Amino acid sequence: MRRLRLWIARRLLGDEVAKIEREIEEEFRFHIDMRTAALVEAGVDPEEARARALESFGDADRLREVGTRDLTDVRARQRRASRLAWLGQDLRDGLRRLGRRPGFTLLAAGTLALGLTTSTAVFTYVNAYSRPFPGADPHGVHQVYSATEDVPYGALSFPDFEDLVETAGGLMDVAGVGRTLFAASVRHEDLTEVVFGQGVTGDFFPVLQVGMAAGRGLSAEDDLPGAAPAVVISHGYWVRRYGSDPETVGRTILLNNQPYTIVGVAGREFLGSSSAFRPQVWLPFEQYTRVYWARSDTRVNREVGAIWPIVRLTPGATPSQAGEALTALARGLDQEAPLEDHTRDFILEPVTWISPATREAEASTTRIMMLAAAALLLLACANVANLVLSAGARRHREMALRRAIGASRWRLVRQLLVESLLLSALAGFLALAAAGPMGARLSSYFARPSVWGADVPREIVVDPRVMAFALVAAVLTGILTGLAPALRAAGRSPARALNAGGTWATWGSAGRGPRIPGTRELLLSAQVALTVVLLFVAGLVLRTMDSASRVDAGFDVEQTLASYVSTSSMDVPVTERHAFFEELIRRFEELPWVAAATVAENAPLSGHPTTELRSESSPELVRTTVAHVWPGYFEVMGMEVLRGRSLLPTDSADAAGVVVVNQSLASRMVQDGNAVGHVLWWPGSDGQPDRGFDVVGVVRNARQTTFLDEPEPVAYFSLPQHYSAPGNAFLVKAADDPSAAVDRIEQELRRVDSRIAIVNILPYADVVRGFLYTQRMNAELFGVIALLGLILSAAGIFGVVALAVARRRREIGIRVAMGADRRSTVRLVLTTVFGPLTVGLLLGLAGALVATRLVEGLLWGVTPTDPVALISGAAVLLLSVGLALYVPVARALRVDPVASLRAE
Amino acid sequence: MTTERGDLLRGTLEMLILRSLEDGPMHGYGITERLQRVSDDVLSVDEGSLYPALYRMQKRGWLESRWGRSENNRRARFYTLTRAGREQLEVATSNWVRFSKAVARALEP
Fold it and tell me: Does the N terminus or the C terminus of chain A have fewer Cβ atoms within 10 A?
């Protein structure tokens, strides 16, 4: 072991160890000589004296070995200590030198801060994907998903969930959350409103240890059949509706006209277990199922995903054990209760607030966001490296002088590196300060308007991971920025630099030996190349934004408003619901500011149920979006009926069942698309016979559930012929400005009945804008990154050319004095950047080719080789290059030969 | 570790070295000389124990060494006490006094 260590030390320290050995040898020799001399003086024979002196050392080889080992350790410790002392000195020196040049320091740190801020903000955004939901104890908490080929992160069916709870004992505590939000109307004394809520099992609050602002969380007892109806409200709802009144706990709240006792207020931090939903109330699962699953078999159906399990592993249990238990459970259930078309696969994932499905859906966008941010950071590094090099030109004599008086090469490199690390540290602090607000800006796009109210922004938090990222990025940036200038400065021979009078950069000078591309040329090329790629991506994303906002929805988006109204807090019997909504339409159509109004089960551009329908002309089942609309709907929405007829008031409950299909469904039913006269069969459930509907018309395709997807097959049934839920979408076509109609509609609805519940009222233009949030976010993000990149590289080009002109004033002066014309002067200046610009442009185009594959996922209605994006990007780049060149070239043309010669 | 006249406890040699250096820097040979002189030749440290102890004590941070000129003008390695070495000397001395008193009491007839 010892020998091995010594051997390693010898390899690593070589000279050092040899020196230690020599010194030990010398020390021993000295000792022996002294002893011999002393013995001789005492009268011992010299030969004898020497032998005795040697003998007293015993095994000298062993002594040497032990000594070498110990002293090597001592030396290593000394080196460490002195290195720390040096570092402190370097830091002080670096700060002093930066302080002497505040302009340079601010410019360099500011440039790096642009790059680091963008990177850190993007990382903050990406980091949010792996954060657990706030307001609860995330330790050991995981989520269980049911994975199928189509839905990799699906909910479990309720019976499967009950089996999971049964079998999980000892390994994990299992809580469950309803798969979707429910909407309920709440009647307060002065107004009725719609709140969103989620059903949670009795274990939810205790297992996740959700922090409470007042009262208690829901308990297992609350979730028993027959328990007193209890509810927990969110902190936000408590503040908004109850003014943070501490007496709220214990009060009764009327949800859909049913009384519930408020047993607690969730903590301010807890916003629900999924970032996509912000419930205002939480109901015990038992109560939730009784109300919302009453008309379905979800409680017993193993085919329907209904509940998200959230589990906490018991102390000592590992995720792999839990995973194995889940696999065993899935196998067992497949044996006992096999599913129709697939086997079960239950997977365990660490708890995250943003669902893994969302994370994966957005992965391609995220990846290119990170790449673009990294490109901007590299660009900033190249820019600052060039800045340092230019400054280094001035400082080169200083460096050479230090070398000449004995500073080691390594020490100079270290000093320059410390300087750039200080710069990047400064930039890193700026980046951390700005990352929060910038990340929040990105997340605000998710607060998009939709038919069901505004979605919520994502929570963006600067946590230790973000700080670690900023730190590592800043250090790497510092090294990247400082390395080239440092090596370059340190590599020069001091004599040459001192003789050269400080003009060390000679690149671009004609006729003095072969031209070797200098560091600065390469850095300039890199900046141009990265800018080309960034501009190209930004061009494509902006074009995507443009083409997506030109999509024709297929109905009148400009004048129409969407709202959703519910009678659930009013005493309207089921049989009277149709009449209520018919009266609502009639009442609104009499108003002067309303052009027309209609009712549908679901508003266009919102979620619709789908089912598999069959037509008698083909055995194929067609997955169809089901819409129930009031007669007159097509006319109000401005949808053209192409064949047959529209839905008419005569298509009432006691008339024959009819349906109007869109072009997409019609062409799936019959070859020529004329489905009128055919029958569409609605599959009967529970042994009921299929119900046939006569197709009476074909209507033009319109976007029904989403805005950017191609229109899917849609069947429009006549709502009066079907069951009406307590609430329906209420669509109003305004006679004038639709945004002015928002308040009018609300006032009028409240006049109809103060207990009417309104979810949301908004113009369809806003709904459409809400659908384009990713496109808008991408356009802004990539646009800003490309713009910053363009500014940086233009500044870089400007700096390099301006420096070249300043250096060569004398040469230019002589040439002008000898009769050179303006054109040749311009050419002389431009040759300095022509090479690097061309190389950068070509590299950038190659990079853009690679980027096309990556950006494809971001594009909509634009091909990656879009000529408009390419040409406009190139034009913007050339214009900027021209601007960057204009000033230095103009300066070169103004060179006064006499003055320039005198200046030397 | 042995001497001709009996065993020295391990910590004792180190204590004696520290004490020898308390008056000023000294080379290895000087330390053996001094120990022999002040103990009236009772204590004689052999070189096979002295040098490992000196190196070990450097490693522990009790001593520092520096090359200098000896009294006969030869290059020699001089050892100096560090602050940690002085503290160690105090601790070791008080321990030794306590120990020797205890032994003396135990041997009293």
Answer: N
Mean pLDDT of chain B: 83
Closest CA to A848 of A537, A618, A621: A537
CB contact under 8 A, B47 and A26: no
Residue A405 has a pLDDT of 63
Residue A814 in contact with residue A897, Cβ under 8 Å? yes
Report CA dihedral (A653, A654, A656, A657) to the nearest 10 degrees. 20
Of A2-16, A98-112, A620-634, which gets the smallest average pLDDT? Answer: A2-16
Q: Which of A35, A63, A71 sits opposite B29 (nearest CB)?
A: A35
Helix locations, A306-408, DSSP H: 319-336, 356-361, 363-404
The type of residue at A198 is Q
Residues A377-421: tens digit of each pLDDT: 999 999 988 888 877 666 666 666 666 666 667 777 778 888 889
**Cβ contact A63–B29 (<8 Å):** no
- The Cα–Cα gap between A463 and A432 comes to 10
Q: Mean pLDDT across chain A, nearest whole number?
A: 87
Confidence of residue A824 (pLDDT cuts 50, 70, 90): confident
Phi, psi values for residue A258, rounded to 5°: -105, 135
Average pLDDT score over residue span A457-469: 85
| Dihedral pair phi/psi, residue A96, rounded to 5° | -65, -45
The DSSP 8-state label assigned to residue A569 in this structure reads: T
> How far is the C-alpha of A690 from the C-alpha of A612, rounded, in Å?
12
Q: Do A70 and B55 touch (CB under 8 A)?
A: yes
Give residue A1's pLDDT.
Answer: 56
- Cβ atoms of residues A699 and A660 within 8 Å: yes
- Cβ pair A302, A160 in contact under 8 A: yes
What angle do the packed helices B47-59 and A15-41 form, to 10 degrees? 140
Contact call for A23 and B77, based on CB within 8 A: yes
| Angle between the N-to-C axes of helices A773-807 and A363-404, in degrees from 0 to 180, rounded to the nearest 10 | 20
Query: Which of A303-307, A513-517, A727-731, B12-16 has the lowest average pLDDT?
Result: A513-517
Which residues, including other chains, have CB under 8 Å from residue A638's CB and lie 6 or more apart?
A555, A556
The first and second tokens of residue A820, run together, are 């050179």
Residue A475 CB partners (closer than 8 Å, separation 6+): A421, A424
SS3 annotation, A209-229: CCCEEEECCCCCHHHCCCCCC
Name the minimum distance, in Å, from the CA of B53 to any CA of chain A: 9
Q: Which chain A residues have a beta carbon less than 8 Å from that of B47?
A: 28, 31, 56-58, 63
**Cα–Cα distance measured from residue A201 to residue A179, given in angstroms and rounded to the nearest whole number:** 12
CA gap A145, A205 in Å, rounded = 20
Token duo for residue A616 = 């008698």
Pairwise CA distance, residues A285 & A307, whole Å? 10
DSSP sequence for A431-461: HHHHHHHHHHHHHHTTS---TTSPPPPPP--
Which pLDDT score is estimated for B6?
Answer: 40
Helix or strand or coil: residue A750? helix
Q: Rounded to whole angstroms, how far apart are CA atoms B96 and A229?
A: 80
Residue A7 confidence class, pLDDT cut points 50, 70, 90: low
Q: For an interface test with A, which of B41, B55, B72 has the most A Cβ atoms less than 10 Å from its Cβ? A: B55
Q: Does A25 touch chain B (CB under 8 A)?
A: no
Q: Is A234 helix (H, G, I), strand (E, B) or coil?
A: coil
Question: Torsion angle of alpha carbons A554, A557, A559, A563, nearest 10°?
Answer: 110
- The answer, for A81 touching chain B at a CB cutoff of 8 Å, is no
ipTM: 0.89
pLDDT at residue A507 above 60? Answer: no
In tens, the pLDDT along A602-638 reads: 999 998 988 888 887 777 788 999 999 999 999 999 9
Q: How far apart are CA A721 and CA A275, in angstroms?
A: 38
